[in-house]
Amino acid sequence: MRLRPYQQEVAKVVVESIIAQKGLTLSVEMSRQGGKNELSAHLEVLLLTMFMAKGGNAVKCSPTFKPQTIISMMRLKERLDEFGFAGIYRPELGYIISLGNARQIFLSADEQASVVGHTADILLEIDESQDVSKDKYTKDFRPMASAFNTTTIHYGTTWDDTTLLEEIKQANLELEKKDGIKRHFRYDWEEVGKYNPSYLSFVESEQDRLGDSHPLFLTQYALKPIRGGGGFLTPAQIAGVHGSHLRQRHREEGKTYIAGIDLAGEEEQVDELILTRPSRDATVITIAELEVIQRSEARLAQPKIKVVEHYAWIGKKHPELFNQMLNILKNTWNVSHAVVDATGIGEPIASFLKQVLGSRVVPFVFTQKSKSELGFELLAFINSGRLQVYKQDGSEEHKELMCQLERAKSVYRPNQTLNFFVDPSEGHDDYLMSLALLCQAAKDWQPRVARGLR
Asked: Is 325 inside a domain boundary?
């Protein structure tokens, strides 16, 4: 089987545990796209082959049936075809693949999924274990292995220190100290990169783009868990955004400008879920000069933004601001791209701006998922040194922005999303959100290409 050395190490321990009926519970942390799914599929092919005469059930669960469980089934079918079993294995009931008398059963670990009644007497696999509920695993899946002391393996990447994967990992490390039997396997991006130069280059580019301390880089590639929530930015990160350039009042010829616009509002209801956003009484426009920097010939060019101006209005209704905002975006700065908060009562003003400025304006609706992505993008710009704010000028705008950056909090959710905000008791987050929307504008911006007749 075409497995890399680190994948072979895990496969060998799994097979030995099954043959010797050791009933080990193993944990495997592998860098994102490092090959854990291929390892799983190859193990399934091997075990179906080994038990096709004797018979038995192997069970694999994933956090969701669609798409994760379906993808796992497709991958196994592809590997069976590659190993010459096309036309021999049998799909059954939409979630089982049989080879001879052996069956590989695929189940969803979703909280609402009904899975009771299945037995795993060959192997029990928990895919993306960091996303599986501890209660679901303990009540529904762990008992499947009890009758035959079945070997169990948890795969995943880390997230925070409260996940099922982290719990299994810590238990395994303690057991290893007592009996010397290796149960936890960890392969970060550098280990995977030893055997795949293309992968190494890709992750190094992500390291440039996100920065070493970015939550996604730490968890997905370095395999280091996030320790709860707390402050959104460290003092070092805040210090890193201080630029040496002066504040500007109007555009300079030949330069590209973008904008992030946060519209004053309070609560928004999205998908029947109230997203609690701190009370804001200001509409804020953040203007920045956009540059494209090239790290090296081998790395992708990345956008860099220099904040050059702020506009803020307190207590002004959106219709009263429309003409003034339009003049700023169109005439004063001639922005190439602007991302506008279009959540709730912000939708009409975003729509009006888009009608006048066309594709240069992109409405942004805050949801749990979109706000999380916005926060991760802001962190990427800050960590990589691609966000700079004009030099301290003694203005209220600069002071308020820095104050909000210092007071911003973060909460990391179990579903690997992030919330960032300023507690209402400590102030507002309008400048912070405007800055985050600005980063989104920089990420999405593409140069307009003139089209001529041939």
From this structure: yes
pLDDT in tens, 201-228: 999 999 999 999 999 999 999 999 887 6
Rounded to whole angstroms, how far apart are CA atoms 25 and 153?
A: 6
Domain range for 272 is 229-444
Average pLDDT, the chain: 91
Regarding whether 275 and 178 lie in a shared domain, the answer is no
What is the distance of C-alpha 148 from the center of its chain? 37
Strand order in the sheet with 418-421: 230-231, 409-412, 418-421
- Regarding beta strands 256-262 and 282-293, do their DSSP bridges make them parallel or antiparallel, or are they unpaired? antiparallel
Encode pLDDT of 382-424 as tens digits.
Answer: 999 999 999 999 999 999 999 999 999 999 888 889 999 999 8
Say what the alpha-carbon torsion angle 410, 412, 418, 424 is, to the nearest 10 degrees: -30
pTM for the whole thing?
0.82
Domain boundary among 176, 197, 218: 197
Q: How far apart are CA 382 and CA 259, in angstroms?
A: 17
Q: Say how many C-beta atoms besides its own lie within 10 A of residue 392's C-beta.
A: 12
